Automatic annotation (TrEMBL), chains A, B, C:
Its main location: membrane. InterPro entries: Ammonium/urea_transptr, Ammonium_transpt_CS, NH4_transpt_AmtB-like_dom. The chain crosses the membrane at residues 16-36, 57-76, 96-115, 124-145, 165-187, 208-228, 234-256, 263-281, 287-303, 315-335, 355-373. One of its GO terms (biological process) is ammonium homeostasis. It is found in: Membrane. Pfam families: Ammonium_transp (PF00909). This is Ammonium transporter, putative. The keyword Transport applies. Belongs to the ammonia transporter channel (TC 1.A.11.2) family. It comes from Citrifermentans bemidjiense (strain ATCC BAA-1014 / DSM 16622 / JCM 12645 / Bem) (Geobacter bemidjiensis). PROSITE patterns: AMMONIUM_TRANSP. GO terms for molecular function: ammonium channel activity.
Amino acid sequence: MNGMSATTALGSSSDVLFLMLGAVMVFAMHAGFAFLEVGTVRRKNQVNAFVKILTDWSVSTVVYFLIGFPIAYGISFLKPVKQILGDNQGYDITHYFFLLCFAACIPAIISGGIAERAKFWPQVIAGAIFAGITYPVFESLIWGQSSAGLQAFFKQVGGAEFHDYAGSVVVHSIGGWLALPAVIILGPRMGRYLKGKSHPIPISNIPFLALGSWILAIGWFGFNVMSAGHLEKISGIVAVNSLMAMVGGVLAALIAGKNDPGFVHNGALAGLIAVCAGSDLMHPLCAFVTGAIASVIFVYGFHIEQEKLKIDDVLGVWPLHGVIGSWGGIAAGIFGQEALGGMGGVSLASQTLGSLAAIVFALCNGFLIYGILSKTVGIRLEQEDEFRGADLSIHSIGAYPEEHIR
Amino acid sequence: MNGMSATTALGSSSDVLFLMLGAVMVFAMHAGFAFLEVGTVRRKNQVNAFVKILTDWSVSTVVYFLIGFPIAYGISFLKPVKQILGDNQGYDITHYFFLLCFAACIPAIISGGIAERAKFWPQVIAGAIFAGITYPVFESLIWGQSSAGLQAFFKQVGGAEFHDYAGSVVVHSIGGWLALPAVIILGPRMGRYLKGKSHPIPISNIPFLALGSWILAIGWFGFNVMSAGHLEKISGIVAVNSLMAMVGGVLAALIAGKNDPGFVHNGALAGLIAVCAGSDLMHPLCAFVTGAIASVIFVYGFHIEQEKLKIDDVLGVWPLHGVIGSWGGIAAGIFGQEALGGMGGVSLASQTLGSLAAIVFALCNGFLIYGILSKTVGIRLEQEDEFRGADLSIHSIGAYPEEHIR
Amino acid sequence: MNGMSATTALGSSSDVLFLMLGAVMVFAMHAGFAFLEVGTVRRKNQVNAFVKILTDWSVSTVVYFLIGFPIAYGISFLKPVKQILGDNQGYDITHYFFLLCFAACIPAIISGGIAERAKFWPQVIAGAIFAGITYPVFESLIWGQSSAGLQAFFKQVGGAEFHDYAGSVVVHSIGGWLALPAVIILGPRMGRYLKGKSHPIPISNIPFLALGSWILAIGWFGFNVMSAGHLEKISGIVAVNSLMAMVGGVLAALIAGKNDPGFVHNGALAGLIAVCAGSDLMHPLCAFVTGAIASVIFVYGFHIEQEKLKIDDVLGVWPLHGVIGSWGGIAAGIFGQEALGGMGGVSLASQTLGSLAAIVFALCNGFLIYGILSKTVGIRLEQEDEFRGADLSIHSIGAYPEEHIR
């Protein structure tokens, strides 16, 4: 073996390691989704949060393997394992693992919105449809095998392709805007609004909420940095922009949210969601601003959603992932410009169009799927089950079984 | 330096990084063992679970460094550090770190079975013997410096060497089948069976149990993927097979375990245990089936163990690591076949023989060591100490000290 | 592209990945700082611990970006992102990320000492000064752009440069010795000492304390191993020495601390703090001894501090990070010697001098900054606010809001 081929082999192995590490980091984020929800819902619904997230993850793994990834990238793994391994040590299937972690975010995001009163299996079915079909179709149009046409359109109309480096729009906004119809159709939790008056329901456990936020933030560096796909394309800028947007989100939430721990820890996530799209393009200080604006959107958006619009979105996933995901798409079009110290090559018009397209796509699919499920199998727990809590009524056990015998 | 030698240097550094990352991931799994046990035992035994796991880890580190690794691989580190570093940046000692993480699983696995009534120091001693001698001897026979003879025997009798890529048999089944004698000799917890009737003891904290399961599952990708040993041997198949077995385990537990959170979170582990042996050989769909079967074995095995055999194995480590570890060894012989889309080169006979050998080896050693300890220093807490809980009686403090003064 | 240039490109990418992974691991340690504090303080101050750590992290990120890193290394990022990216894929800014994680340890360390009675914003300001100016100045003198002069002095006087591989002195001792003046000026918590008698305040939650310790220990491998800066300089010795010092710390704390879970879990950290400086130099068995001695220092130092000196340092950060950090600097000068199997090239005199310099530097800065803050804005909560707890008085919410309505 000469120097060149040894290097090629090492590069190929390094790519598999690179993507694998990214995949594991984003897989870990799903524990973060779980704890964020567990800390926010009441104690009687904590077990349900854990099982939902793990079940949705598992179902997503299967459907994205069999259906979703082939839709998005035209690659199937229904062939002998020797062929899957190929001569690049299984790069494609590792890529599947990494991108599955994104697809599985869709039900995980929705889970936080519909918490505490949704039936178990209908939501599993909805998640399977989203991770297996809905999301991959959109993914295919932006990143995947069918992207040529739509991107050519964006380029013609806006002057540049639609740029979404790590999924502010493709992942987060799709998840958040799918959740909105779900939450609306489901209706608010019992007692959340009485006679038109809002009665906020206290959250259960800030340490678990904080743990969830930390796990998500840590894993996010895999989400963004490993979106490079190949080690040779890694960029330190992506890592630091993610960091900067996160701390912008934290500090803005600290001020706008008046030192509330829920806002501070969700503010970190707001910043991270907003920076995904343009994390490879912006100057770090612009990433900071992007994150700070995201966090302000969350603090006020959450308030408007809950108090004015009276939408009982338990974790605020529509403003957090939906609205801020869209903001992230647009922000890439602003702060990615060379005039602002960015890498350039983006167009505000294309970014806005692409972000709007995602909203329309997600709303239509969300109303369609949840509408059908609601009319057929029903998506909401019986009143009595909701009152007892999803833990006892669905899982026949509470989160702290020993307590009940003391 | 020319291209080739630069590549060699980079490859050497990459190998150290690769193994180090794997080691850290598997080290982290020990926090998972701790939380899994903490969530499952009663509140009065939570501190003990933490201290046991951390102490067992620490003792294992020392004995495997001084005795175990030299037994298994014939490499000693009792020489100046310059020689340890060598010209490959300390590859061997990094390899020690990675493989220590496996050895230290043995006491960590047993810990979950004997929880809530075992004396502290006798178990530390048992763990030291297992990690320092028992396990390394078996490791040496299968993977290590003495493997030639036994593997030649397997090849002659079964047609292929015994294949255990990441330790379904060498690690998990040894741990689980060592735990069985420990649990039998120790006897059930006070009140667990009264007049031949089973009185299940409620677990304390499902969020901690779930946290433990998540940490284990995340770290497992280091356990399996980095078992390649060298970066150039990395395989994306191993990562995705681990994933697939895990989700097979989750989904089967969801059904067989009737949506019970304990089964769902242990089901993930069941799948991961079963897939270790053949994770480099199977098609991902076969890995899914391997994991699903493992999970069904756990759900019914746990029930049979606890209710029919009346063995009080608190975390169910015998069915989980023992029986399923053996299943993993056998499954590699089935699903590794080319006829089922696998890589081939394995033999069901060899796999079955190797798995049986591990059972016999572990049972003999377990009854011997725990028998001696039981007859000499005693392995069980005094009744009064057990009643007060291991936390107060061994560590003089409960898990939530502030509570006692309120 | 020929073999050499392909290898160079791969090496450059690998360096960015290497540092990024290290940065993320040390970033994760800040979740560990948070949980360690949350588990140790009373329930009424848990929210405050989370928000302090996250806010200090965020402020440190900004000030170290704008001021600290330029002070320490003479590199500014106030230029277009294309120039930041350069032709090494943003190595410098990734290096900033990694080293920020060290700088941000300073306020995180102090946070544990001043817990339960400090005002919020004055501590944020102090943290900003430390991470933005104080720490970078010392960093610059030892590791950074101004190191030539001081290191030449050490070499002349002591025979070798002052060696601090991963910051026992530069990071931990600076943090711990800055905390001492803060704790002294702040005074003990209400009721901690009454009429000259010590009344220990029970900690709240050992599972959270243990989680914090585990997260810190896991992330520490990034702290130490990635201090190599470049992948080609990685050393397996560093990883195993970190491990050995940790388990030395655990086992010594187990004995000296009479099986107390707080000492055992902090003992792991004591060992890790002590080994940073010489982790690249020592034989693993010497690292074990270094960690064991550190842990004994902590057990007795904590007792002396709290009971004899009557200093209410809640997490014991002065003995833990301060005194043991200094011990780490000295230990490198002892166990790094070739006569003890080490790599050599260090001098006990230089190590002692450097460690003393850090103490003087930190004490002066600590008394100065906290003295000024105390005289101007005040650093201590009002009595009533302290009594209600920092959570309700600063953040208007407790850690378990649902409890209050049941």
